[in-house]
């Protein structure tokens, strides 16, 4: 039914092409910003969503860049409520260019895979990785990015760790590739702690932090306190919190940028609302006598209200769709560039739904006043205003 | 007189201009027969356009009764009145009042958008109306690409496309040269004669009024002279 009015609506938009273009362009920019801000939020939040609540991170109390003794591992494992422990260290690997950092962690493979059941690895690859001390487990995203295949020897370079022979190149072999069907970063490398410990030329006996799995999520806080208490007043005091809390705290720090962006987008949306409402009001004012003619021909007040609202919604939906499509396209184009900092940077589905609601809502609000004015116009007065 | 299609009794219409109340129609009574062609004449401010607007349901009287084809038009609510206009009244304006962004055929199609008709039916009706006014070859032209006479003929096509009972024309030749004006009047006469449309035309021009069967003169809101 609405289809028959489309030529009329489209013609109204063509009336002042330049004005329509500028209004549309403003809405496109607003929704582009919205899409990018939501992509950032999604990228930051996705790390939190996949972080386990039953996993704790124990790191140096001063800073996570300070190392902890390896001897802590057994002491942590011995605590009541702890089921698994693995050390992890920031390896600082890079590929081709030092700016292309790849998140790489030496871990205890068996313990790691038990603690992270969401890492899906084919059984034969898993066995191959466990059996090869210089083998690495890499994510599907990294494999796609680099073209590395299982069985391929890779010269991994580290910007932090040198081997005992002074070389910064670590010869490793890709033994397995993991997938994370529920989402998360698939651009990591996991290597054997044993190989790392044996080959490195400095800081032997020290690791970055511990990942601790607890038997009961409800007791996670108590276990965390127990761990920290155990190393209180030692040269390397610890600070333990859940992996999810840690991820959330990181996101909260970085996420302030997202909050600022959201505030900006809200302001832009509000401005757009005023701009669109003004454009619509102006457009309806210019068409007073035409509205009189339409009423004369038999268009009802309600029908005209609907027509003006539909026109406003058409503008916002058109602009909003272009803006969101632009944000999606930018996400696809730049995701490979940002992926090490912002993995999964893309317009999420909930943002598209929210954006659609905003588009329609903005159109309805912007069109409400001019539509009501059009509805209330008396025919005789409208026809007089030529 | 045959059965009147328009029956007006004691019609009063007042307008406010600030504190002043101006009585435009002062208890006017008039009957118009079905199939008639009536010219409404009179000096400016005599109430002829107001009368036309009231007959067409564009405005409401302050008192009196206005019956069109047996229906008390002044008693209809806004929505019903709009629907009644869509089905029973065709308007022709002095300034044509076409929508400048639409082509001639889209302008003519406008009244049909309100009817339960398929696109094909609408297109057929539009083509027939444009053919009737002799503008089939101008269907895709916008108003600014047409002459005044052609614009008015598109206006007439728009007025008749919905097959209305009444054709109300407010100074239809007022903005046209003599030749174009005559063409428009020929058309209105043909619609009246061949299609049986009841035409009520407001005009200042005695030459135009000559085409009508009957000329009604108004002055100060009252019927002064009724010339058959």
Report on this model:
Chain A is an alpha+beta fold and 386 residues long. In chain A, helix 1 (6-14) crosses helix 11, helix 2 (17-50) crosses helix 11 (301-338) and helix 11 runs antiparallel to helix 12. The mean pLDDT of chain A is 87. Chain A is built from 13 helices and 13 strands. Helix content of chain A is 56%, strand content 17%. In chain A, strand 4 and strand 5 (97-102) form a beta hairpin. Chain A has 2 domains: 2-48 and 254-384, no CATH class; 52-249, no CATH class. Chain B has 228 residues and is α/β, with parallel strands linked by helices. Chain B has a single domain (34-62, 76-227), classed as P-loop containing nucleotide triphosphate hydrolases (Rossmann fold), CATH 3.40.50. Chain B contains 7 helices and 10 strands. Chain B has helices spanning 48-55, 78-88, 104-109, 119-132, 148-160, 178-195, 206-209; strands at 4-17, 20-33, 37-41, 63-68, 71-72, 89-92, 166-170, 198-202, 214-219, 222-227. Chain B has a 6-stranded mixed β-sheet with strand order 6-7-8-3-9-10, sandwiched between helices. In chain B, strand 1 (4-17) and strand 2 (20-33) form a beta hairpin. In chain B, helix 5 (148-160) packs parallel to helix 6. Chain B is globular. The mean pLDDT of chain B is 91. Chain A binds chain B through residues 4-5, 7-8, 11-12, 14-15, 289-290, 292-303, 378-380, 383, 386, and chain B through 53, 56, 58-59, 78-79, 82-87, 91, 93, 95, 97, 99-102, 106, 110-111, 113-114, 119, 122, 158.
